[in-house]
Design brief:
The complex is a heterodimer of chains A (about 190) and B (about 900). With about 190 residues, chain A is mostly helical. Among the domains of chain A are: about 55 residues, Electron transport complex subunit B, putative Fe-S cluster (3-methyladenine DNA Glycosylase II, Chain A, domain 3, Orthogonal Bundle), CATH 1.10.15.40; about 60 residues, Alpha-Beta Plaits. Chain A is about 35% helix and about 5% strand. The longest helix of chain A has 27 residues. Chain B is an alpha/beta fold and about 900 residues long. Chain B has three domains: about 350 residues, Rossmann fold; about 50 residues; about 375 residues, no CATH class. Helix content of chain B is about 55%, strand content about 10%. In chain B, strands 1-13-12-16-14-15 form a six-stranded mixed β-sheet, sandwiched between helices. Chain B has a four-stranded antiparallel β-sheet with strand order 2-7-6-4, with no helix packed on it. Chain B has a four-stranded parallel β-sheet with strand order 10-9-8-11, sandwiched between helices. In chain B, a hairpin with a 7-residue loop joins strand 6 and strand 7. The longest helix of chain B is centred in the middle third of the chain and has 85 residues. Chain B is elongated. The chains are: A mainly alpha (about 190), B alpha/beta (about 900). At the A-B interface, helix 6 of A face strand 15 and helix 13 of B.
Chain lengths: ~190, ~900
């Protein structure tokens, strides 16, 4: 009988101790927010374009973590969608209404036509447009995410989305294709 | 155990992993001395830094001399570009670049004038130059690494850390290239001179020239030049290393000579080692000692398809097609032109591109030298590539991941440490172009990293914008709140005006009861007088209400307001004693917000008042007036001051009784006369709480007394008409009716007075004043409410007065609303019949009294102390006139 009581008491004590430890650990090492949201957000292209129907990439990441579809990001394209699918453990779905490989674009203001209405400045989610009232505006190409949001508000339609120019810095060997220099040295001629 | 330096001095050569021994073709080009090419017509000098670190120093159409700088910039990373020959700038525009992509890059096109005339060069001796001078001269000369990477040499010459060992790279391991070989053979002294300069700047412990054993002539030439150099003995030596590709790689050469491996991602300077190419040494010598900019270099032109392979001094910007033409280029079908060696070079997409600072070889192999394009086979995992790799990587793994696009995994296998030497491709039995895969993967990873950085920046900027918008919103709200508060305080400032107006109105109402008995023989005069005063008051009022809101917040403005209000009150009080007409006038005035409105309303009110006064004068009944008034006054004086409240309660009760009586008397008495009176009594009761000062309280008592008196009268009338007298008297006894009831002898007289008043009211009603009282009634509650929060002017009296009246006021209002409705109806009925009476000529005195007032209301918006003063003066004049008129009237009587 005493052994049973001892066992019960000991187990109860143990349960209490571990409960305290676990409770302390839960408080001490509490994870703020949902970590999957950060991972999802890091995967998204951060164009902040709102084409997914959410006001920015973070809200979409949060929506995905709550069960939104993963194929809503046209700027990210299929690659992003696949990463999202992998993160969320869902099947990849074709990205809604977008070409296979999204072309990186940048907004360009035809400066002589700009009337300085500042509407595009307000629309730009990343402050990539410079200008002020009744002054010519221009796009800081390095900061432009190509989200298209400035095109719609322009009253004089002076904003063009042009593909990003390839220069020596962002040139990709892929463009050249796999091409070796097939200079083979006439080894046969020489006896080693 | 030997120290590092001893090992270096002994010429110890370490092993490097991997490497291959491709068959050499150096004999093709190293047999002849360095030649020169005939001058080309055009030179394409790329100016890639323009727009970033530099700007153009010349413009299109300028004539430039050989060695003249084309760009200038203050940036540390600026690498000047010089004109390779004298001539005219024809264009500065994007042209195809000497790059694997052939993408256009900003290029300065110089049309040679054929004279090839130099600018004045500033030569100097090494002894007179400081280190900074040397570095500056190196930068000004635009010296860049000539081994291929074209890194600015002046940056290498000013390192952040101490340099213990300088290695001069004379290995030149590429199988075809001999430019350094020939340079060493012919210009060893220049190279040694460059080493002296480097030694002076960096003061390393040792300078080691590493050279492959396949260039014995060059090594001999260097040793000879070195022995004749001014370098301290034992500092510099030439170490011959075995021929092995790629010993000429920077990291490989360091490992070969020192046994140290440069860590992944680090640069040799972190080990205290610096590597310079022999060509760079010669260029540094030229730049520092002769002031000669780097405008030409030795380039090997070789391959089976040139008739005269060899090394040539080529001005930077010489077009490759010109070079080939001069060397007897014999192109085949599908001819490849390779810049650099066969191992690490790249084919040009088009040959109209310039020779640049890093170009060391132009290779045009014949088809005999080229193997047929071998088909790429599957990787058999033979690990030949891993054995050949000089960086100890695992090319087969890298290939696997690169091919599948799994660049993260490729990165995990240290893809970035790949030097793209091509050893793996060379040894691959499956002919897999491994290096090409790695280049693709590397550029993809680089782009992905840039994307990541960019998206990170975009995210930051987006968040910054969101935060900014949030902040702006918050500020806007705070501002709106502040504005609302200011408005509130302005309102309370305006409330003062409203209170003053309410007081004035109350007083005017009192006058309703007071004036009727007064209306004796001089009634006409007095009314006119009162009108004048009311106008003066109104002017003061307008002046007050005109003052802009923010100013009222200020102390002196508030002071002004109070003064004005006091003036208005005083005037109103006086006016109230004599006339009942002003109540409606007041109502109209105060209900209007702006001075403009005030003026318009005042004009209307004046017209109405005039009409009414005329009518009243006609209808007034003399005999009971004085009695009635004295009774009222007696009642007033009898009441102690502390009894305000009771008085009001009494008044309210009286009103209630009067109402009842009125309701009952509807058949007996003239309802049209009775109801307007009820109206005015109610109004007075409601505006009671608005009275704030002691004087006002007194007035309120007066008004209450008047009301009570009226109520009594009404009760009397009701009694006369056999109604329930007991009821009403019992009710009126509750608060404190005794005091008022003492004036029993005046009762009858008052009845008469009431009748007279009723008639006067009726007249007023007929004159269209029914609406005025309506407006008045609506205004009252607002005044009562607004009086409460305003603690500025009369703090003590507000609450005790306002609280008890609330319920009564409500009752009274209900009653008043009923009465009003009736009055309106009556007025409507009677209006048509009696309107013709209203048209009456203006009284002279009145029009006189009015004139200063009119002026006043026009000047009112100015709103200053002077204006108030003027208003007071005008009011005083008006009063004086009124008094005179009254006296005249008395005299006449």
């Amino acid at each position: 009988m005493t052994t049973i009581i001892t066992a019960v008491v000991l187990l109860t004590l143990l349960a209490l101790v571990f409960g305290v430890i676990l409770g302390f650990a839960a408080q001490k090492f509490k994870v703020e927010g949902n970590p999957i949201v950060d991972q999802l957000e890091a995967t998204l292209p951060q164009t902040q374009c709102g084409q997914c129907g959410y006001p920015g990439c973070r809200p979409y990441a949060e929506a995905i973590s709550n069960g939104e579809k993963i194929n809503r990001c046209p700027p990210g394209g299929t690659a992003t969608m696949e990463k999202l699918a992998e993160l969320m453990g869902v099947d990849p779905e074709p990205v809604a209404a977008v070409e296979e490989e999204p072309v990186k674009k940048v907004a360009v203001i035809r400066e002589e036509e700009c009337i300085g209405c500042t509407k595009c400045i307000q629309a730009c989610p990343v402050d990539a447009i410079l200008g002020s009232g009744k002054m010519m505006h221009t796009v800081i190409a390095a900061d432009c995410t190509g989200c298209d949001l400035c095109v719609e508000p322009c009253p004089v339609d002076c904003i063009d989305m042009v593909p990003v120019q390839t220069d020596l810095r962002n040139w990709d060997w892929k463009l050249k294709g796999l091409e070796t220099i097939p200079v083979k040295f006439v080894e046969e001629e020489k006896s080693c | 155990m030997l120290t590092n330096l001893e090992q270096l001095d002994n010429g110890v050569v370490w092993r490097i992993p991997g490497g291959i021994h491709p068959p050499e073709q150096k004999h093709l080009s190293n047999q002849t001395a360095i030649g020169t090419l005939p001058l080309d017509e055009y030179y394409y000098v790329p100016v890639p830094q323009v727009g970033e670190q530099a700007s153009m120093a010349v413009a299109v159409g300028d004539h430039v001399l050989k060695g003249q700088p084309l760009t200038h910039g203050l940036n540390q990373h600026h690498l000047p570009v010089h004109a390779p020959t004298s001539g005219v700038i024809k264009a500065i525009e994007p042209r195809p670049s000497n790059h694997a992509s052939g993408l256009p890059v900003n290029t300065c096109v110089i049309q040679a004038d054929g004279k090839d005339s130099w600018v004045d060069l500033q030569s100097a001796s090494l002894e007179t130059l400081s280190n900074d001078d040397i570095v500056a001269r190196v930068q000004a000369a635009g010296v860049a690494g000539m081994g291929g990477a074209a890194f600015p040499s002046h940056i290498k010459l000013s390192p952040a850390s101490d340099i213990e060992l300088v290695i001069i790279n004379a290995v030149e391991c590429e199988p075809y290239i001999t430019s350094d070989d020939r340079l060493m053979r012919e210009h060893a002294d220049k190279i040694i001179s460059g080493m002296e300069i480097i030694h002076q700047v960096l003061t390393p412990q040792r300078i080691i020239v590493g050279i492959e054993d396949n260039k014995p002539e060059a090594a001999d030439a260097l040793r000879k030049a070195l022995s004749a150099s001014k370098l301290p003995a034992g500092v510099a030596r030439v170490t011959v290393v075995p021929t092995k590709y790629p010993s000429g790689g920077e990291k490989q050469l360091i490992q070969l000579l020192t046994g140290k491996e440069v860590p992944s991602g680090a640069i040799p300077a972190q080990l205290g080692i610096l590597v310079h190419n022999v060509g760079t040494c010669a260029a540094i010598s030229d730049a520092v000692l002769q002031g000669k900019p780097l405008i030409e270099r030795v380039v090997t032109v070789t391959g089976g398809n040139v008739a005269q392979p060899g090394n040539y001094w080529m001005p930077i910007g010489t077009r490759v097609d010109h070079v080939l033409k001069c060397c007897g280029f014999n192109p085949e079908a599908d001819q490849k032109v390779i810049i650099g060696g066969p191992m690490m070079g790249y084919t040009l997409p088009l040959i109209q591109v310039p020779v640049i600072k890093g170009t060391n070889c132009v290779l045009v192999p014949s088809s005999a030298e080229m193997s047929v394009d071998a088909k790429e086979l599957s990787c058999i995992r033979c690990t030949e590539c891993a054995q050949a790799c000089p960086a100890s990587l695992l090319p087969q793994q890298l290939y696997w991941h690169s091919k599948s696009g799994d660049y993260d995994k490729a990165s995990d296998y240290n893809l970035r440490d790949c030097i793209e030497c091509g050893c793996c491709s060379y040894v691959c039995p499956s002919d897999i172009p491994l290096v090409e895969y790695f280049r693709v993967a590397k550029s993809a990873i680089r782009n992905a990293n840039e994307e990541k950085l960019k998206s990170e920046r975009a995210k930051q900027k987006f968040e910054a914008k969101q935060a900014r918008l949030e902040e702006e919103k918050r500020q806007r709200e705070a501002k709106a709140k502040e504005a609302a508060e200011r408005r509130q305080s302005n309102m309370s400032g305006g409330d003062k005006d409203a209170i003053a107006a309410a007081l004035a109105r109350v007083q005017a109402k009192k006058a309703v009861s007071a004036a009727t008995p007064e209306a004796g023989a001089d009634r006409k005069d007095k009314v006119a007088d009162a009108v004048a005063r009311a106008k003066a008051r109104k002017a003061a009022q307008a002046a007050q209400s005109d003052s802009p809101a923010p100013e009222q917040n200020q102390a002196n403005d508030a002071q002004k307001d109070k003064v004005a209000a006091a003036i208005a009150r005083a005037k109103a009080r006086k006016a109230a004693m004599q006339s009942d007409n002003e109540a409606e006038v007041d109502t109209n005035q105060t209900s209007a917000a702006s001075s403009q409105k005030d003026k318009v309303a005042a004009a209307i009110a004046r017209a109405k008042a005039k009409k009414e006064a005329l009518k009243q004068a006609l209808q007034a009944e003399a005999p009971t007036d004085s009695d009635n008034k004295s009774a009222d006054e007696a009642a007033d004086t009898l009441e102690p001051k502390a009894d305000d409240r009771q008085a009001r309660i009494a008044a309210a009760v009286a009103r209630a009784k009067a109402k009842k009586a009125a309701a009952k008397d509807a058949g007996v008495n003239d309802p049209k006369g009775q109801i307007p009176e009820q109206n005015s009594v109610d109004s007075i009761a409601q505006s009671d709480p608005g009275e704030l000062s002691a004087e006002e309280a007194k007035k309120a008592r007066v008004a209450a007394a008047v009301a009570k008196a009226k109520a009594k009268k009404a009760a009397q009338q009701a009694g006369d008409s056999k109604s329930t007298v007991e009821d009403t008297q019992a009710e009126s006894a509750e608060p404190k009716p005794e005091v008022e009831l003492t004036a029993e002898e005046a009762k009858k007289a008052r009845v008469a007075a009431a009748i007279a008043k009723a008639k006067a009211k009726k007249a007023a009603q007929q004159a269209g004043e029914g609406q005025g009282s309506d407006a008045h009634m609506q205004k009252q509650p607002a005044d009562v409410n607004s009086a409460e929060p305003d603690s500025n002017s009369e703090p003590a009296d507000v609450k005790p007065e306002a609280e008890p009246s609330a319920e009564e006021a409500k009752k009274a209002r209900v009653a008043a609303a009923i009465a009003k409705a009736k009055a309106k109806k009556a007025a409507r009925q009677d209006g048509e019949a009696q309107r013709p009476d209203n048209a009456a000529p203006l009284n002279d005195e009145r029009s006189e009294a009015m004139s200063p007032d009119t002026d006043q209301s026009e000047q009112a918006p100015a709103q200053s102390a002077e204006e108030i003063k003027k208003a007071r003066i005008a009011a005083a004049i008006a009063k004086a006139k009124a008094k005179k008129a009254a006296k005249d009237a008395e005299d006449k009587e």
